[in-house]
Amino acid sequence: MKILFIGCKYDYGNPELGFSYEYYNLYEPLAKMNNGEHQVILFPFDEINLKIGRDTMNQQLLGAVEREKPDLCFFFLFENQIKEETVMKITESGIKTINWFADDKWRFDSFSKYWAPLFSWISTDDPLRVKDYNKIGYKNVIVGGWGCNDYLYKPMNVEKVYDVTFIGQPHGDRKKVVEKLKNAGIKIECFGRGWPNGKVSQEDMIKIFSQSKINLNFSACSGRVGIVKGITRVFFSGGKLHSPAEWITNFKTFLARQQNEIKGRNFEIPGCNAFILSGYAKGLESYYELGKELICFKNDKDLIEKIKYYLAHENEREKITKAAYDRTINNYTYEKKFNQIFRTMDLI
Protein backbone atom coordinates (compact mmCIF):
# COMPACT_ATOMS: atom_id res chain seq x y z
CA MET A 1 0.00 0.00 0.00
CA LYS A 2 1.21 3.52 -0.79
CA ILE A 3 0.61 6.06 2.00
CA LEU A 4 1.14 9.82 1.79
CA PHE A 5 1.72 11.10 5.34
CA ILE A 6 0.81 14.78 5.75
CA GLY A 7 2.00 16.20 9.07
CA CYS A 8 4.53 18.35 10.91
CA LYS A 9 8.10 17.13 10.68
CA TYR A 10 9.28 19.29 13.56
CA ASP A 11 7.94 19.92 17.05
CA TYR A 12 5.52 22.84 16.80
CA GLY A 13 6.92 23.36 13.29
CA ASN A 14 10.24 24.59 14.72
CA PRO A 15 13.36 22.74 13.47
CA GLU A 16 15.30 23.91 16.54
CA LEU A 17 13.02 21.78 18.75
CA GLY A 18 13.72 18.50 16.95
CA PHE A 19 11.30 16.07 15.34
CA SER A 20 7.60 16.24 16.20
CA TYR A 21 5.51 13.72 18.12
CA GLU A 22 3.72 12.69 14.95
CA TYR A 23 6.99 12.19 13.07
CA TYR A 24 8.35 9.86 15.75
CA ASN A 25 5.12 8.08 16.64
CA LEU A 26 2.97 8.00 13.50
CA TYR A 27 5.18 8.43 10.43
CA GLU A 28 8.03 6.19 11.58
CA PRO A 29 5.82 3.24 12.67
CA LEU A 30 3.87 3.49 9.41
CA ALA A 31 7.13 3.27 7.47
CA LYS A 32 8.50 0.35 9.53
CA MET A 33 5.37 -1.70 10.25
CA ASN A 34 5.04 -5.25 8.97
CA ASN A 35 8.72 -5.28 8.00
CA GLY A 36 8.33 -2.15 5.89
CA GLU A 37 5.67 -3.56 3.58
CA HIS A 38 4.07 -0.16 2.89
CA GLN A 39 5.56 2.65 0.83
CA VAL A 40 5.21 5.73 3.05
CA ILE A 41 5.94 9.17 1.60
CA LEU A 42 6.37 12.13 3.94
CA PHE A 43 4.79 15.48 3.09
CA PRO A 44 6.15 17.77 5.88
CA PHE A 45 3.78 20.71 5.50
CA ASP A 46 5.53 22.74 8.21
CA GLU A 47 8.91 22.56 6.51
CA ILE A 48 7.42 23.29 3.08
CA ASN A 49 5.26 26.13 4.43
CA LEU A 50 8.33 27.85 5.89
CA LYS A 51 9.99 27.85 2.48
CA ILE A 52 7.17 28.70 0.08
CA GLY A 53 4.11 29.77 2.10
CA ARG A 54 0.73 28.19 2.75
CA ASP A 55 -0.90 28.73 -0.63
CA THR A 56 1.93 27.23 -2.67
CA MET A 57 2.34 24.44 -0.11
CA ASN A 58 -1.32 23.46 -0.64
CA GLN A 59 -0.75 23.42 -4.39
CA GLN A 60 2.30 21.20 -3.90
CA LEU A 61 0.23 18.80 -1.80
CA LEU A 62 -2.35 18.44 -4.56
CA GLY A 63 0.50 17.91 -7.02
CA ALA A 64 2.02 15.21 -4.82
CA VAL A 65 -1.33 13.43 -4.60
CA GLU A 66 -1.76 13.57 -8.37
CA ARG A 67 1.80 12.37 -8.97
CA GLU A 68 1.99 9.60 -6.36
CA LYS A 69 -1.63 8.38 -6.52
CA PRO A 70 -1.52 7.01 -2.95
CA ASP A 71 -3.99 4.48 -1.60
CA LEU A 72 -4.28 6.56 1.57
CA CYS A 73 -3.61 10.15 2.62
CA PHE A 74 -2.87 10.06 6.34
CA PHE A 75 -3.20 13.52 7.93
CA PHE A 76 -2.24 14.80 11.36
CA LEU A 77 -3.89 18.21 11.53
CA PHE A 78 -4.67 20.12 14.71
CA GLU A 79 -5.21 23.53 13.13
CA ASN A 80 -6.00 24.77 9.63
CA GLN A 81 -2.48 24.11 8.37
CA ILE A 82 -3.99 22.61 5.21
CA LYS A 83 -6.89 24.39 3.50
CA GLU A 84 -10.32 22.82 3.85
CA GLU A 85 -10.85 22.86 0.11
CA THR A 86 -7.55 21.02 -0.39
CA VAL A 87 -8.61 18.17 1.90
CA MET A 88 -12.07 18.01 0.34
CA LYS A 89 -10.62 17.86 -3.17
CA ILE A 90 -8.40 14.91 -2.23
CA THR A 91 -11.25 13.03 -0.54
CA GLU A 92 -13.66 13.68 -3.40
CA SER A 93 -11.07 12.34 -5.87
CA GLY A 94 -11.72 8.86 -4.46
CA ILE A 95 -8.50 8.54 -2.47
CA LYS A 96 -9.16 7.46 1.10
CA THR A 97 -8.24 10.07 3.70
CA ILE A 98 -7.94 9.89 7.46
CA ASN A 99 -7.09 12.52 10.06
CA TRP A 100 -5.57 11.48 13.37
CA PHE A 101 -7.26 13.90 15.76
CA ALA A 102 -5.46 14.52 19.07
CA ASP A 103 -6.67 16.23 22.26
CA ASP A 104 -10.29 15.64 21.23
CA LYS A 105 -11.36 16.10 24.84
CA TRP A 106 -10.98 19.85 24.38
CA ARG A 107 -10.44 20.35 20.62
CA PHE A 108 -13.71 18.71 19.49
CA ASP A 109 -16.03 21.72 19.83
CA SER A 110 -13.59 24.25 18.40
CA PHE A 111 -11.92 22.20 15.67
CA SER A 112 -12.54 18.47 15.17
CA LYS A 113 -16.30 18.52 14.57
CA TYR A 114 -15.89 21.06 11.76
CA TRP A 115 -13.04 19.22 10.02
CA ALA A 116 -14.17 15.59 10.37
CA PRO A 117 -16.64 15.71 7.43
CA LEU A 118 -13.75 16.57 5.10
CA PHE A 119 -12.17 13.13 5.57
CA SER A 120 -13.19 9.60 4.59
CA TRP A 121 -12.32 8.46 8.12
CA ILE A 122 -11.10 10.03 11.34
CA SER A 123 -9.39 8.73 14.45
CA THR A 124 -10.17 10.14 17.89
CA ASP A 125 -8.12 9.80 21.07
CA ASP A 126 -11.23 10.17 23.26
CA PRO A 127 -13.66 7.19 23.14
CA LEU A 128 -16.37 9.38 24.70
CA ARG A 129 -16.34 11.61 21.60
CA VAL A 130 -17.59 8.86 19.28
CA LYS A 131 -21.19 9.67 20.21
CA ASP A 132 -20.52 13.38 19.60
CA TYR A 133 -19.29 12.64 16.09
CA ASN A 134 -22.38 10.51 15.52
CA LYS A 135 -24.59 13.38 16.68
CA ILE A 136 -23.25 15.58 13.89
CA GLY A 137 -23.93 12.78 11.40
CA TYR A 138 -20.36 11.52 11.05
CA LYS A 139 -20.05 7.74 11.32
CA ASN A 140 -16.57 6.72 10.10
CA VAL A 141 -14.97 7.18 13.52
CA ILE A 142 -12.16 4.98 14.82
CA VAL A 143 -10.80 5.12 18.36
CA GLY A 144 -7.09 5.26 17.62
CA GLY A 145 -5.60 7.53 20.22
CA TRP A 146 -2.25 7.17 21.87
CA GLY A 147 0.01 4.15 21.78
CA CYS A 148 3.65 3.07 21.84
CA ASN A 149 6.11 3.12 18.95
CA ASP A 150 7.93 -0.04 20.00
CA TYR A 151 10.56 0.55 17.31
CA LEU A 152 11.64 3.57 19.37
CA TYR A 153 10.54 3.02 22.97
CA LYS A 154 12.46 0.01 24.23
CA PRO A 155 13.70 -1.24 27.61
CA MET A 156 17.31 -0.38 28.43
CA ASN A 157 19.55 -2.31 30.79
CA VAL A 158 20.78 0.67 32.82
CA GLU A 159 21.15 1.47 36.49
CA LYS A 160 18.28 3.18 38.32
CA VAL A 161 19.98 6.49 39.19
CA TYR A 162 16.81 8.54 39.84
CA ASP A 163 14.16 8.01 42.48
CA VAL A 164 11.49 10.05 40.69
CA THR A 165 11.52 11.90 37.37
CA PHE A 166 9.13 13.93 35.27
CA ILE A 167 9.70 14.80 31.62
CA GLY A 168 7.49 17.50 30.14
CA GLN A 169 6.76 21.18 30.35
CA PRO A 170 5.73 22.93 33.61
CA HIS A 171 2.12 23.57 32.58
CA GLY A 172 -0.53 24.53 35.13
CA ASP A 173 0.36 23.72 38.73
CA ARG A 174 3.16 21.26 37.99
CA LYS A 175 5.86 23.42 39.57
CA LYS A 176 3.81 23.72 42.76
CA VAL A 177 3.29 19.96 42.88
CA VAL A 178 7.01 19.30 42.36
CA GLU A 179 7.81 21.74 45.17
CA LYS A 180 5.44 19.83 47.47
CA LEU A 181 7.23 16.60 46.63
CA LYS A 182 10.60 18.13 47.45
CA ASN A 183 9.25 19.52 50.73
CA ALA A 184 8.08 15.98 51.57
CA GLY A 185 11.67 14.75 51.20
CA ILE A 186 11.25 13.17 47.77
CA LYS A 187 14.17 13.39 45.36
CA ILE A 188 12.76 14.36 41.97
CA GLU A 189 14.39 15.54 38.77
CA CYS A 190 12.39 17.30 36.04
CA PHE A 191 13.36 17.65 32.40
CA GLY A 192 11.86 19.72 29.58
CA ARG A 193 11.52 23.32 28.43
CA GLY A 194 10.89 25.50 31.46
CA TRP A 195 12.78 23.36 34.01
CA PRO A 196 16.37 24.03 35.14
CA ASN A 197 17.56 20.75 33.54
CA GLY A 198 16.16 21.93 30.21
CA LYS A 199 14.95 19.90 27.25
CA VAL A 200 16.47 16.47 26.64
CA SER A 201 16.78 14.58 23.38
CA GLN A 202 14.42 11.78 22.43
CA GLU A 203 17.20 9.25 23.05
CA ASP A 204 18.03 10.69 26.48
CA MET A 205 14.33 10.78 27.43
CA ILE A 206 13.97 7.05 26.77
CA LYS A 207 17.14 6.39 28.76
CA ILE A 208 15.80 8.45 31.69
CA PHE A 209 12.58 6.37 31.67
CA SER A 210 14.69 3.26 32.28
CA GLN A 211 16.97 5.00 34.79
CA SER A 212 14.04 6.05 36.99
CA LYS A 213 12.47 4.04 39.77
CA ILE A 214 9.28 6.08 39.29
CA ASN A 215 8.27 8.09 36.22
CA LEU A 216 5.54 10.67 36.86
CA ASN A 217 2.78 11.47 34.40
CA PHE A 218 0.51 14.47 35.00
CA SER A 219 -2.85 14.04 33.25
CA ALA A 220 -4.14 17.61 33.22
CA CYS A 221 -4.93 18.93 29.74
CA SER A 222 -2.13 21.03 28.30
CA GLY A 223 -2.86 24.73 28.40
CA ARG A 224 -5.12 24.52 31.44
CA VAL A 225 -5.48 27.98 32.98
CA GLY A 226 -7.12 29.46 36.03
CA ILE A 227 -10.80 30.32 36.15
CA VAL A 228 -10.37 34.07 35.72
CA LYS A 229 -8.01 33.78 32.76
CA GLY A 230 -10.07 30.96 31.26
CA ILE A 231 -13.36 32.86 31.44
CA THR A 232 -11.64 35.93 30.01
CA ARG A 233 -10.51 33.89 27.00
CA VAL A 234 -14.11 32.86 26.39
CA PHE A 235 -14.89 36.45 25.46
CA PHE A 236 -11.52 37.96 24.48
CA SER A 237 -8.24 36.92 22.86
CA GLY A 238 -5.50 38.90 21.18
CA GLY A 239 -7.11 42.09 22.48
CA LYS A 240 -10.29 41.43 20.47
CA LEU A 241 -13.82 40.63 21.57
CA HIS A 242 -15.14 37.32 20.25
CA SER A 243 -18.52 37.27 18.54
CA PRO A 244 -21.43 35.94 20.67
CA ALA A 245 -21.59 32.90 18.36
CA GLU A 246 -18.12 31.89 19.60
CA TRP A 247 -18.84 32.23 23.32
CA ILE A 248 -20.56 28.86 23.77
CA THR A 249 -17.84 27.00 21.87
CA ASN A 250 -15.09 28.77 23.81
CA PHE A 251 -16.81 28.00 27.11
CA LYS A 252 -17.15 24.31 26.23
CA THR A 253 -13.47 24.24 25.34
CA PHE A 254 -12.57 25.94 28.63
CA LEU A 255 -14.60 23.39 30.65
CA ALA A 256 -13.05 20.47 28.75
CA ARG A 257 -9.53 21.76 29.44
CA GLN A 258 -10.20 21.63 33.18
CA GLN A 259 -10.41 17.83 32.97
CA ASN A 260 -7.69 15.21 32.84
CA GLU A 261 -6.87 13.33 29.64
CA ILE A 262 -5.03 10.19 28.61
CA LYS A 263 -1.50 10.98 27.41
CA GLY A 264 1.03 9.33 25.16
CA ARG A 265 3.23 8.81 28.24
CA ASN A 266 0.65 6.30 29.55
CA PHE A 267 1.87 3.92 26.83
CA GLU A 268 5.43 5.06 26.12
CA ILE A 269 6.79 4.62 29.65
CA PRO A 270 5.35 1.09 30.09
CA GLY A 271 6.68 0.31 26.58
CA CYS A 272 10.17 0.93 27.98
CA ASN A 273 9.46 -1.56 30.80
CA ALA A 274 9.59 1.37 33.22
CA PHE A 275 7.30 2.15 36.15
CA ILE A 276 4.76 4.94 35.69
CA LEU A 277 2.77 6.71 38.39
CA SER A 278 0.03 8.60 36.58
CA GLY A 279 -2.68 11.09 37.32
CA TYR A 280 -6.04 9.44 36.71
CA ALA A 281 -7.93 10.22 33.51
CA LYS A 282 -11.33 8.83 32.64
CA GLY A 283 -10.95 5.85 30.33
CA LEU A 284 -7.56 4.60 31.54
CA GLU A 285 -9.27 1.58 33.07
CA SER A 286 -10.29 0.44 29.59
CA TYR A 287 -6.60 0.11 28.67
CA TYR A 288 -4.93 -1.10 31.86
CA GLU A 289 -6.07 -2.87 35.02
CA LEU A 290 -5.70 -0.15 37.62
CA GLY A 291 -3.81 -1.25 40.69
CA LYS A 292 -2.16 -4.18 38.90
CA GLU A 293 -0.90 -2.78 35.59
CA LEU A 294 -1.15 0.95 36.21
CA ILE A 295 -1.00 2.95 39.42
CA CYS A 296 -2.84 6.28 39.49
CA PHE A 297 -2.86 9.07 42.04
CA LYS A 298 -5.90 11.19 42.96
CA ASN A 299 -4.34 14.29 44.53
CA ASP A 300 -1.08 15.66 45.89
CA LYS A 301 -1.37 13.83 49.22
CA ASP A 302 -2.08 10.54 47.47
CA LEU A 303 0.82 11.17 45.09
CA ILE A 304 3.29 11.66 47.95
CA GLU A 305 2.05 8.54 49.76
CA LYS A 306 2.26 6.36 46.65
CA ILE A 307 5.73 7.60 45.73
CA LYS A 308 7.02 6.71 49.16
CA TYR A 309 5.23 3.34 49.10
CA TYR A 310 6.54 2.21 45.72
CA LEU A 311 10.06 3.45 46.40
CA ALA A 312 10.02 1.20 49.48
CA HIS A 313 8.44 -1.83 47.74
CA GLU A 314 10.72 -2.63 44.82
CA ASN A 315 9.41 -6.15 44.13
CA GLU A 316 5.81 -4.94 43.89
CA ARG A 317 6.90 -2.05 41.70
CA GLU A 318 8.73 -4.38 39.33
CA LYS A 319 5.77 -6.77 39.12
CA ILE A 320 3.45 -3.93 38.08
CA THR A 321 6.04 -2.65 35.61
CA LYS A 322 6.29 -6.05 33.90
CA ALA A 323 2.48 -6.42 33.72
CA ALA A 324 2.13 -2.98 32.11
CA TYR A 325 4.94 -3.73 29.65
CA ASP A 326 3.31 -6.99 28.54
CA ARG A 327 -0.08 -5.32 28.12
CA THR A 328 1.43 -2.47 26.10
CA ILE A 329 3.50 -4.61 23.73
CA ASN A 330 0.70 -7.11 23.19
CA ASN A 331 -2.09 -4.57 22.66
CA TYR A 332 -1.06 -0.95 22.25
CA THR A 333 1.79 -0.59 19.79
CA TYR A 334 1.10 1.72 16.87
CA GLU A 335 1.83 -1.11 14.44
CA LYS A 336 -1.00 -3.17 15.95
CA LYS A 337 -3.31 -0.13 15.96
CA PHE A 338 -2.59 0.66 12.31
CA ASN A 339 -3.18 -2.92 11.20
CA GLN A 340 -6.56 -2.92 12.94
CA ILE A 341 -7.48 0.48 11.51
CA PHE A 342 -6.50 -0.41 7.95
CA ARG A 343 -8.62 -3.56 8.17
CA THR A 344 -11.57 -1.47 9.34
CA MET A 345 -11.01 0.86 6.38
CA ASP A 346 -10.83 -2.10 3.96
CA LEU A 347 -7.30 -1.15 2.98
CA ILE A 348 -5.75 -4.51 3.91
Describe the structure concisely.
The protein has 348 residues and is an alpha/beta fold.
Largest sheet properties: 6 strands, parallel
Domains (count): 3
CATH architecture of the largest domain, please? 3-Layer(aba) Sandwich
- End-to-end separation in angstroms reads 8 Å
Helix content: 40-55%
pLDDT below 50 for ≥5 consecutive residues: which ranges? none
Q: Give the overall shape, derived from the CA principal axes.
A: globular
User: Strands of the largest sheet, in order across it?
Assistant: 2-1-3-4-5-6
What does this molecule look like?
The chain has 348 residues and is α/β, with parallel strands linked by helices. The protein folds into three domains: 2-147 and 334-344, Rossmann fold; 162-221 and 259-331, 3-Layer(aba) Sandwich (Rossmann fold), CATH 3.40.50; 227-256, no CATH class. It is built from 14 helices and 13 strands. It has helices at residues 21-36, 45-52, 54-68, 84-92, 104-115, 130-135, 174-183, 202-211, 227-235, 244-256, 265-271, 300-312, 314-331, 334-344, and strands at 2-7, 39-44, 72-75, 96-100, 121-124, 141-143, 162-167, 188-191, 212-217, 236-237, 240-241, 276-279, 295-297. The protein has a six-stranded parallel beta sheet, sandwiched between helices. A five-stranded parallel beta sheet has the order 8-7-9-12-13, sandwiched between helices. Helix 1 (21-36) links the parallel strand 1 (2-7) and strand 2. Helix 2 (45-52) crosses helix 3 (54-68). It starts with a strand and ends with a helix.
